[in-house]
């Protein structure tokens, strides 16, 4: 391989500047280790970002809630004057063609104890839930980024129950993106190289050689790969020597489906805070909870097969489906009050290609195998590599980097 870019020789290269890659950089910086982050996109953040100008507050494009305070992010912000609100707004349900506050049976049955390795859909059936509950069960699976017939009750339970992150969903007064930027990204911003699409990683020799799609080469002693599991599964990045079969099989067992967030701006709030069980969206959330605002902003949160369907449509068609559904719920009030909308489709982002990872049927210890380092040179992090039950989250992505970096220098 041509080494004419040897001036780019570095000790650690981090591939990806999402929460995981940025936190890894922050840790290496503190350790005094030389590093560079190679990011394919023109911006950092990955599945976290902010959108300015849509409302009188900045909007979280992707990750938004801090799930529990007993985790890396909770520790980072502790006693630092960060304004955050516990979001304990109640759900209502679209059930048997109307919005109801309570259901005849509690559908949140998936974290109750050890269960068979079958889908949420089949487990609900086994527990006597009629087809009237189908969309509600789909919504619950949707919170985990999956459809009800894709996610395993057993592995989801076994994985999630390992988490010690704590209870409660918190929202920042500003965006999650700002929290990360202010607390650690700014201190390492000169180490991020944008538009560097990593295509080849050769870890045959003492050094690891990395090549981008533009043919730029970088050398490092060690590489931390933090790209989404979809990118690893697609084998877009080629490895020399090839990754072990066991690792490729492990990647294939980690689920990650499509996901969209659609923001809707209305003249007034004619809707309750959270609606689940709808046909078009996994859930509707009031985005203004915890924000200082005079605006009325609703999020349509779409995961699993519902997202697959909407991903085929144009933004205007997506809006039409959502407004039609809300009009049905609230007798035409959605179209009467609509001011603006914005679609954020993570499935169409070519370096993300989906929402977040979930536990599949027959998954076993795939996450452990996927996250293992190779030859003391290749390390893997990112939300899908979190083995402590904190996958699917921002703090989980950061925690996976903490584990990888500790492993790198142990
Ligand atoms: C709609 C949505 C809502 C969510 N809500 C929440 C929430 O409320 N709370 C929460 O905690 N989490 C939430 N999450 C999940 C959370 O956002 C993710 O778990 C987390 O941001 C993932 O971080 P990461 O670093 O692992 O991956 P990413 O953020 O995906 O970062 C990976 C980076 O790698 C880059 N990359 C990919 N391929 C290459 C390549 N070949 N070369 C170089 N770079 C490459 C990508 O561009 C990207 O920047 C949500 C996610 C979505 C999509």
Give a topology summary:
Elements: E1 12-15, H1 19-31, E2 35-38, E3 50-51, E4 59-60, E5 65-67, H2 72-77, E6 84-86, E7 91-95, E8 98-100, H3 120-126, H4 134-143, H5 153-160, E9 169-172, H6 176-185, E10 192-193, E11 198-202, E12 208-212, E13 217-220, E14 222-225, H7 229-234, E15 238-240, H8 245-253, E16 254-256, E17 259-266, E18 274-276, E19 283-286, E20 296-303, H9 304-311, H10 315-329, H11 333-337, E21 338-345, E22 357-359, H12 366-371, E23 378-380, H13 394-408
Parallel strand pairs: 1-2, 1-14, 2-10, 7-18, 11-15, 14-23
Antiparallel strand pairs: 3-4, 5-9, 6-9, 7-8, 11-12, 12-13, 16-22, 17-20, 17-21, 18-19, 19-20
Helix pairs in contact: 1-13
Flavin-adenine dinucleotide binds next to helix 1, strand 5, strand 17 and helix 13.
Output the keywords:
alpha/beta; FAD/NAD(P)-binding domain; Polyamine Oxidase, Chain A, domain 2; seven-stranded mixed sheet; five-stranded parallel sheet; binds flavin-adenine dinucleotide
Tell me what you see in this structure.
It is a single chain. This protein has helices at residues 19-31, 72-77, 120-126, 134-143, 153-160, 176-185, 229-234, 245-253, 304-311, 315-329, 333-337, 366-371, 394-408; strands at residues 12-15, 35-38, 50-51, 59-60, 65-67, 84-86, 91-95, 98-100, 169-172, 192-193, 198-202, 208-212, 217-220, 222-225, 238-240, 254-256, 259-266, 274-276, 283-286, 296-303, 338-345, 357-359, 378-380. It contains 13 helices and 23 strands. The protein is of the alpha/beta class. Helix 1 packs parallel to helix 13. Helix content is 29%, strand content 23%. The protein starts with 11 loop residues before the first strand and ends with a helix. The protein is globular and about 65 Å long. It folds into 2 domains: 6-47 and 175-255 and 363-408, FAD/NAD(P)-binding domain (3-Layer(bba) Sandwich); 89-167 and 259-345, Alpha-Beta Complex (Polyamine Oxidase, Chain A, domain 2). The model is unreliable at 1-9 (pLDDT under 50). It has a 7-stranded mixed β-sheet. The chain has a 5-stranded parallel β-sheet with strand order 10-2-1-14-23, with helices on one face. Strands 13-12-11-15 form a 4-stranded mixed β-sheet, with no helix packed on it. 46% of the residues are buried. Bound molecules: flavin-adenine dinucleotide (FAD).
